[in-house]
Amino acid sequence: SIPALITLAAEICGAPVPENILPSSAARWLSEPLSWFQTFISAPIPMLMLKLAGYYFYVDTGKAQRVLNWRPQKTSRQAISEAFDWFTQQGCF
After folding, report:
1. Which of 75, 74, 90, 88 is nearest to 13 (CA)?
2. Beta carbons within 8 Å of 17's beta carbon, 6+ residues apart
3. Residue 93 and which of 17, 44, 59, 86 are 20 to 30 A apart at CA?
């Protein structure tokens, strides 16, 4: 689930798990007006990305597993940990 993925990423990064304070419908409604003030507001993401709040995007590897006989080579924990290490080495954090 998405909350489990976010919790895992926060644990690996040593960050607190984010809390939902603003309902997704309010975030979508506020995205455009907030984008007008983007240069004055310090935010970790572009304000227009708030339009995606509350929408879920899923990836299913089932077809690749059936058709191509593909299997994941790493666990989610390993992949997130390696990605975090790489971004850290690149100076992104």
Report:
1. 88
2. 6, 7, 10, 11
3. 59
pTM above 0.70, yes or no: no
Residues 6+ apart with CB under 8 A from 48: 31, 32, 35
- How far apart are alpha carbons 38 and 47 in whole angstroms? 7
Residue 77 has pLDDT above 90, yes or no: yes
Contact 46, 38 (CB under 8 A): yes
Q: How many residues does the chain have?
A: 93
Q: For 22-37, what is each residue's pLDDT tens digit?
A: 788 888 888 888 888 8
d(CA 79, CA 76): 5
